Amino acid sequence: MSERSAGMSGQTDRARISPLELLDLDGLLPEEDRQIRAVVAELVTTRVRPHVARWYEIGQAPVRELAVEFGRVGLLGMHLTGYGCAGASAVAYGLACLELEAGDSGVRSLVSVQGSLAMYAIWRYGSEEQKQQWLPRMAAGELIGCFGLTEPDHGSDPASMATRARRDGTDWVLSGGKMWITNAPVADVAVIWARTDEGVRGFVVPMATPGVTAREIRHKMSLRASSTGEIVLDDVRLPADALLPTATGLKAPLSCLTEARYGIVWGALGAARDCLHTAIDYATSREQFGRPIAGFQLTQAKLADMAVELQKGYLLALHLGRLADAGTLRPEQVSVGKLNNVREAIDIARQCRTILGANGISGEYPVLRHANNLESVLTYEGTSEIHQLVIGQRLTGLAAFGG
Predict the structure, then answer these.
(1) C-alpha–C-alpha distance, residues 208 and 195, integer Å
(2) Of the residues 31, 42, 381, 385, which is catalytic?
(3) pLDDT tens for residues 379-400?
(4) Cα–Cα distances in angstroms (integers) from residue 361 to residues 344, 354, 368, in the given order
(5) Helix, strand, coil percent content, the chain, rounded in steps of 5
(6) pTM of the model
(7) For 360, how many CA atoms within 13 A lie in the half-sphere containing its CB?
(8) Rounded Cα–Cα distance for residues 117 and 138 (Å)
């Protein structure tokens, strides 16, 4: 019997491989990127995995401690240049997000919000004085930032934001509120977006400023290893130099969201990969009817389909990363990545849970934690429906928002 026919008939066993080894995708990466990925994977293995189930259970993670450790290895704002930032490639940053979210979506969110939202806004739109004041200590994890765009009544429609900033002499006075703001309860500084007579503008707001209060959002069923809050701005007086000088109009905060969405394209794959690893490990050791359940055709069909979708999502993320490194990545392309990869990741998580059976709901395994977290990832930085409309607009030339 030939090797091929033996394999088809199930008579010849072969060594197991990791899901992302199926297409030898590592061969697409330069050695430097693989080394960066290995550093982050080791950090997640030693610092996150042993504790994250408990963080999730109690609804609290040591955000400040993690920020310092992440800053020490250059993870915060790692794709930015100067001011203490690592200046890594977009692909390397994506791989880091993948490994972080393989630990937990909330942990990756900490890094994304710090680097791709708060730090990026200051790096891209801030004055030199603002960059020097904030970025080095944020890159080191000494200061934690948050990004205030979403409001209680204005999520997918930020153009309708109610937060206002008015001039009072040379000062600015901000009033309003922001909701579902990652890192807000522990943040030292917030980038707040507000409507002015000149359009939407961004402000760097120290959280200790009089009139600023942050309230932790409790009783979450998702992203429990992440700090999420509401920010209230009660006639907050800021000096003129708090304004981000080159951020004018809604395009500025949306460009920051594009940065964060790119990290999600990779990060969601990490959650999916961790679920698939768990399901394969479980299926090869769990026996029913006298054999491992991994040896049954229905289980292998599930595993094969999930592995195929994981490869496709990885290739999409890598393509987008290379476009980003070439400076040609467009927002609608990021929407394709987020829509596909998060949608597939949550489907993989749910399918893996079925392979684990009743154990799939146990905190002993990470699968349902990942699935619950991905419910938030599916919604934040643009819902699936919003990304469908972004893609639809590019395909048709017609905007369907609000219609």
Answers:
(1) 22
(2) 381
(3) 998 899 999 999 999 999 999 9
(4) 20, 10, 6
(5) 55, 15, 25
(6) 0.93
(7) 18
(8) 12
pLDDT per residue as tens digits for the range 300-353: 999 999 999 999 999 999 999 999 999 999 999 999 999 999 999 999 999 999
Distance CA 100, CA 267 (A): 7
Structure tokens at 250: 């809604």
Active site residue 259: no
pLDDT tens figures, 121-143: 999 999 999 999 999 999 999 99
CA angle at 266 for the pair 346 and 278, rounded to the nearest 5°: 50
CA–CA distance, 328 with 64 (Å, rounded to integer): 35
Burial class (CB in 10 A: 0-12, 13-18, 19+), 14: exposed
Domains, the chain: 19-139 (1.10.540.10), 145-248 (2.40.110.10), 252-396 (1.20.140.10)
Rounded CA separation 232/243 (Å): 18
Tokens of 59: 């609804």
